[in-house]
Amino acid sequence: VIDGALYRIFHNKHSSERLLLVIPSSEVTNILQLAHDHATTAHLGRRKTLSRLNSRFYWPHMRRDVADYVRACILCQQYKPTNQKPGGLMKPIIVSESWHTVGIDITGPFTKTRRGNHFILVVVDYFTKWV
């Protein structure tokens, strides 16, 4: 405790130690807002926001809280590019006659039959919709 504030001693790999201010749970949201939303932080991503906080502060579950906060940030969702590939466009399957196109699937395992089978092979004709 220094000047009425609780600090945690952090030992890094190079045997030096740092004092990290312990943040009470009631102030976590305020610290996250300052570290992520403030004009000088430019809505950094999860990794960089966590790095900034790790250098000065400590609270339990900090990594999870930062990830949740950044993931829920409305501005980041609207303006930051996504790393996800766009989904493929679906196209209708044009079928002109019976048995031209069929869908085949296996379902199971089920309880063993008298013949020792556990699975069912399902074949559907796309034209007639017969199974």
From TrEMBL:
Residues 23-81 form the Integrase zinc-binding domain. SUPFAM superfamilies: Ribonuclease H-like (SSF53098). Pfam families: Integrase_H2C2. This is Integrase zinc-binding domain-containing protein. One of its GO terms (molecular function) is nucleic acid binding. PANTHER family: ENDONUCLEASE-RELATED (PTHR47266). It comes from the Eukaryota. The lineage of its organism: Eukaryota, Metazoa, Spiralia, Gnathifera, Rotifera.
